Amino acid sequence: MKVLGIETSCDETAAAVVEDGPKILTNIIHSQVKTHAQFGGVVPEIASREHIHKIVEVVEQAVEPLGGMSEIDGVAVTTGPGLVGCLLVGAQVAKGIAMARGIPMVGVNHLEGHISAALLAQEAPSYPHVALVVSGGHTHLYHVQSFGSYELLGGTRDDAAGEAFDKVAKVLGLGYPGGIHVDRLAQDGNPKAISLPRGMNTTKHFDFSFSGLKTAGINYIREHGGALEGQELNDFCASLQEAIADILTKKAVAAAKRCGVEGIVVAGGVAANSRVRALLEERCHNNKMWAFLPPRVLCTDNAAMIAAAGWTRLQNGETTPWSTEVRSRWPLGDLEVPSHD
Questions:
Q1: pTM of the entire predicted model
Q2: Is-contact 182 228, C-beta < 8 A?
Q3: Pairing status of strand 23-31 against strand 12-19
């Protein structure tokens, strides 16, 4: 069974095809980073228009190497959470393809998609486990009993970890997205050089807070003339990165212990951060747990993860009605009950 995945929840226009396994056959991503970099962040209206311009081309690039649309047996598309205008583009294209071909369609929760990137590994992680989903818009911990069964353990009460990266990087003039630039500069910095706060630094609960860290970082920059250079810049980036990685991995390991599971899956754009990956592996090893780190290309928004989640749901006979609507908010623990063939 070949499933076409479509992802347009934010600023990547992506399409991919997976088959039995699920296994990636094609994975096409058109990034809008250059378009939005001049604004220091994603402009929803511009992102929607860019999706409209690129979606047909991207889908064609995903299916043509396999023999065209006639080879596709099902369609999976992100229907939330995300930017409504962006989601509508992908959803309408997916519905059109499914209707024209007479094949099933399933709407996928974007967060489930991120967690499902693990299904694409040669050896997928076992259930149950804890999943840390961390990106520019999300920072959540879930107890994953099985595919489709998610218990929210905690989440950010204000800013997401990726937002803290991006907003501080913007003040530094590093460009968008900020996390990549911070990670690069941090490689030559001392993570203990600057004391930055860890919000909600407790394992009594699994909620996060990055607003205070973001503010402290911006205040430090302004107190030092509004610009950092050389080694001071490297040290600041390393310290910022360490503060974020420390609290994320500390709570993830504590949550895994509390749930009595043997491992942790990390997913989302911030899962590509080198310090988050290294510290999670280190702390999991020290606690005799496994850590699953997806390839970096599957950490950021992509359609292969959406296709993987959709393939699994379609295998279970689940489909989404044509009347389904996209949604800006869609808690992962509140997945709608799909129809069955």
A1: 0.93
A2: no
A3: antiparallel
Tens of pLDDT along 241-257?
Answer: 999 999 999 999 999 99
Q: 209 — phi, psi (to 5°)?
A: -150, 125
CA angle 7, 10, 11 (to 5 degrees): 95
Q: Dig out the tokens for 109 from the structure.
A: 């929760």
For residue 318, what are the β-bridge partners? 340
Other CB atoms within 10 Å distance of the CB of residue 226: 10
323's tokens:
């009347």
Give the contacts of 16 (CB within 8 A, at least 6 positions apart): 4, 5, 24, 25, 26, 27, 28, 62, 302, 303, 304, 306, 307
pLDDT band of 194, cuts 50, 70, 90: very high
CA gap 122, 66 in Å, rounded:
21
Amino acid type, 294 = P
| 43 HSE (CA, 13 A, CB side) | 11
DSSP letter, residue 287 = T
CA angle 59, 46, 133 (to 5 degrees): 70
The pLDDT tens digits for 117-163 are 999 998 899 999 999 999 988 999 999 999 999 999 999 999 999 99
Q: Tell me the residue type at 168.
A: V
Tokens of 176: 């968008």
Predicted confidence at residue 340, as pLDDT, reads: 39
Residue among 306, 205, 286 at smallest CA distance from 247: 205
Q: Are 181 and 168 in contact (CB under 8 A)?
A: no
Both structure tokens of 311: 């393939």
DSSP string for residues in 107-135 = EEEHHHHHHHGGGGSSSPPPSSEEEEEES
Percentage of residues of the chain with pLDDT beyond 90: 91
Please check the confidence at residue 209 and state whether its pLDDT lies above 80: yes
Distance (Å, whole) CA 213 – CA 209:
8
